[in-house]
């Protein structure tokens, strides 16, 4: 089936500008059709081929495609718009755009950054950063939650993992903003603005690569106890990251670990404001309830909207024929509201159990590497916020990011009792 038959066009920028509930209602219509719908994409010179994709919107389809990485390849790219082939030649390929065995090798090396031991080591640091953010909020009074809270935590955590000093972090943040401006639907327009964003994006990547290359070379010469030293010096199997791979890994951490956690925090506050019963439930037994509450925030919000795969061989996906070379896009917000898996899927229920959401990706080799780090950041940040700012709540409507990749909030006014 094609987009014309449904009247829904996931490639059109106007679709992503509509209120989230309307988009979810359209996803529900697509799900009810029972077969993936094909969407044509425009050809953009220098950027991508414009092959179009089949939209996977049912939970069972997203799970099956994520699991079967031999048929549903992450090469040449899992992101949209697909980067042009020359980009990875210049900057290296991030692991999210790789298949095994190259992907497995990289994942083995960088896994060291996310072991329970490594996470336990940075927990105190995360708590200290969260406490400092709340100190500043109390001193400064109400304002914009995204700027004052949500944007500050994840970037500081990633930089502190990588050993990037505080004074360099505002520069890193400005580079990330330039990179992420060119993601999602805005890149699908062959306009001078898109080209300008692409140029800004490339310059930002070069700047960040230079920064971490210097760091990597220093740690190779003079290893210390930090993550970069562990990545650029050999593991017990003799594997290590090249300086170019370190650059790609850093980009990926910044893009994958920054906006996602920031948006989960902002959406979380919005949800606890709109659902005071759920907030009271959580605060009555925070330690017991926060784990399931975080899973429900990630399910309900789906901070990442989509990743794509390329079909390597003719294949039937849950009865739907696909051809070698076809593209599929996995739409996590649609899968996460699938009534075949989630009872009352539009209810925000922090006691939901089981909760097999695919907000961190479906089961398979690319399942989010930073999920436990994100869970820790959310648990600690909400604990500091709710513990020290009684009556914390959003005090106005959120402003949403226009993107088909990040379910982002760009601004959210907030306040608390007797600020
Ligand atoms: C709420 C927060 C987060 C969400 C919703 C999220 C979501 C996702 C999703 C959907 C994927 C799957 C990609 C695919 O299947 O192609 C993914 C992969 C990944 N995520 Fe996350 N993520 C979050 C936080 C983080 C954090 C904090 C980090 C690291 C600092 C991180 C690092 C990664 C990496 C490295 C991958 C690629 C894994 C691979 O290709 O093997 N993520 N994430």
Report a brief summary of the structure.
This protein is an alpha+beta fold. The chain has 17 helices and twelve strands. The protein is globular, with a radius of gyration of 21 Å.
How do the strands and helices of this protein lay out in sequence?
Elements: H1 3-6, H2 13-16, H3 20-33, E1 37-39, E2 53-56, H4 59-67, E3 72-73, H5 85-91, H6 102-110, H7 116-140, E4 143-144, H8 145-150, H9 152-162, H10 169-181, H11 192-221, H12 227-232, H13 243-274, H14 276-284, H15 286-301, E5 306-311, E6 315-317, E7 320-322, E8 327-331, H16 332-335, H17 371-388, E9 393-394, E10 399-400, E11 409-411, E12 413-415
Parallel strand pairs: 2-8
Antiparallel strand pairs: 1-2, 3-5, 4-12, 5-8, 6-7, 9-12, 10-11
Helix pairs in contact: 7-9, 7-17, 9-13, 10-11, 11-13, 13-15, 13-17, 14-15, 15-17
The structure holds protoporphyrin IX containing FE.
Keyword list:
three-stranded antiparallel beta sheet; 17 helices; alpha+beta; five-stranded mixed beta sheet; 12 strands
Distance between the termini: 55 Å
Count of DSSP-assigned helices: 17
Helix content: 40-55%
Mind telling me the CATH class?
Mainly Alpha
Order of helices and strands: HHHEEHEHHHEHHHHHHHHEEEEHHEEEE
Radius of gyration from the alpha-carbon trace, in angstroms: 21 Å
In round numbers, the mean pLDDT is 89
Which fold does the CATH topology refer to? Cytochrome p450
Poorly predicted spans: 184-189
**CATH architectural label:** Orthogonal Bundle
Structural class: alpha+beta
**Shape call:** globular
The main pleated sheet reads as: 5 strands, mixed
Total of domains: 1
- Give the total of beta strands: 12
Strand content: 5-15%
Small molecules bound in the structure, each named once: protoporphyrin IX containing FE
Q: Any idea what the CATH superfamily is called?
A: Cytochrome P450
Biggest sheet: strand arrangement:
1-2-8-5-3
InterPro entries: Cyt_P450 (IPR001128), Cyt_P450_B (IPR002397), Cyt_P450_sf (IPR036396)
GO biological process, one term: cholesterol catabolic process
Protein name: Cytochrome P450
Family: Belongs to the cytochrome P450 family.
């Amino acid at each position: 089936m094609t987009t014309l038959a449904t009247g829904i066009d996931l490639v059109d920028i106007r679709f992503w500008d509509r209120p989230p509930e309307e988009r979810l209602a359209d996803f529900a219509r697509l799900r009810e059709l029972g077969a993936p719908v094909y969407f044509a994409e425009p050809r953009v010179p220098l950027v991508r081929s414009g092959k179009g994709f089949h939209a996977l919107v049912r939970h069972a389809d997203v799970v099956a495609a994520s699991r079967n990485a031999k048929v549903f390849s992450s090469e040449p790219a899992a992101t949209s718009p697909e980067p042009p082939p020359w980009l990875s030649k210049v900057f290296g390929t991030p692991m999210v755009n790789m298949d095994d065995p190259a992907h497995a090798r990289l994942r083995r090396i960088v896994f060291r950054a996310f072991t329970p031991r490594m996470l336990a080591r940075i927990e105190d640091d995360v708590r200290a950063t969260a406490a400092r953010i709340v100190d500043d909020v109390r001193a400064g009074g109400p304002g914009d939650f995204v700027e004052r809270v949500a944007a500050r935590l994840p970037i500081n955590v990633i930089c502190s993992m990588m050993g990037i000093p505080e004074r360099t972090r505002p520069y890193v943040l400005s580079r990330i903003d330039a990179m992420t401006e060119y993601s999602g639907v805005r890149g699908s327009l062959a306009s001078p603005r898109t080209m300008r964003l692409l140029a800004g994006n490339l310059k930002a990547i070069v700047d960040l690569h230079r920064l971490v290359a210097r760091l990597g070379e220093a740690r190779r010469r003079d290893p210390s106890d930090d993550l970069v030293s562990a990545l650029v010096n050999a593991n017990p199997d003799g594997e290590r990251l090249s300086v170019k791979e370190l650059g790609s890994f850093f980009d990926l951490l910044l893009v994958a670990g920054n906006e996602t956690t920031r948006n989960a925090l902002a959406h979380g506050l919005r949800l606890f404001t709109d659902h005071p019963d759920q907030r009271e439930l959580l605060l009555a037994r925070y330690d017991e309830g926060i784990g399931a509450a975080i899973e429900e925030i990630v399910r309900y919000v789906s901070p990442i909207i989509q990743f794509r795969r390329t079909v390597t061989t003719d294949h039937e996906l849950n009865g739907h024929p696909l051809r070698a070379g076809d593209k599929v896009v996995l739409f996590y917000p649609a899968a996460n509201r699938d009534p075949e898996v989630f009872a009352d899927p539009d209810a925000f229920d922090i006691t939901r159990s089981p909760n097999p959401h695919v907000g961190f990706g479906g089961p398979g080799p690319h399942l989010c590497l930073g999920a436990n780090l994100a869970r820790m950041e959310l648990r600690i940040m909400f604990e500091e916020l709710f513990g020290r700012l009684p009556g914390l709540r959003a005090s106005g409507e959120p402003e949403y990011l226009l993107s088909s990749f990040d379910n982002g909030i760009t601004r959210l006014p907030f306040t608390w009792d007797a600020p």
